[in-house]
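Hi,

Apologies if this is the wrong queue. I'm a grad student, and the batch job for Zn-ribbon-containing protein from Pseudoalteromonas fenneropenaei produced an output file that my downstream script rejects. I'm not sure whether the problem is my script or the file. Here is the sequence I used:
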Amino acid sequence: MFVADLTFDCYQDTTLDSAEAAINRVVNALRFNGQIIGDEFPTVLKEGYFITRVMCPEQDALHPLNHSPFVKHSIKLLQEAGLLAPKVKIIGQDIHANGADACKAPNSYILYTTYVHTCSPLYCGDDFLPVPLYRIPAIANGDYKALIKWQEDWQACDQIQINGATRCEFAALSEISNLDSDLSRRGLDLTKRIRFLTGKPVYYYLYRVGGEDLATEQARKCPSCGGDWLLPEPWFGLFDFRCDSCELVSNLSWDFQ
Ligand SMILES: [Zn+2]
Ligand SMILES: [Zn+2]
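Support response: The file is valid. Your script probably expects a header line. Output copied below for reference.
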């Protein structure tokens, strides 16, 4: 992950409100296109220009070749607010964050996130590195907004169930664990779409916690087809279960690990 500064020069008088709205539009468009990652982008006003700090999955993530139609449109609209197209300056690599997938053609993908992950929710099935979204064909309306929204909701549910301090805990847990929850249904629709666009298997992750005992948990069957799905070794040290016909993965209950 790379830290970058976007500089927006003012070439004519503008108001703070219209400049802010125009910059926000660009930032949102870049975010829904996977070119920048995270949900907080501090913007500072300097003498005649604005600087917005962002995180990118790759050094060349902000190259115009990666722009979605919405990004291009938002950059064009900067003019109306008296701003020029942003200049990109890479500050350097974030020492905390993981790298981006570099595989030319992954053999499969995994849709996976947690509340602590600040990266793409699409992982390479060969080496489990996050895939910059703009590397796969756009999912709908020219970008990946539906996928980013699914990730936001998944992370919010995960945060609520981990904190365990409210009655929402159980509803949130059900959303990320059950095959037939609203969130899983949305996620499975997304995997179906990515499978269609890439022609590769796309696994969907189901969270697992609780259960009676280790033996019962190990005997757990695929919740979709009822088949055996326990792996001899966990896939990437994380997924103890995988059903190749349903393209589902899960972990051994966190209570018995
Ligand atoms: Zn890879
Ligand atoms: Zn199955």
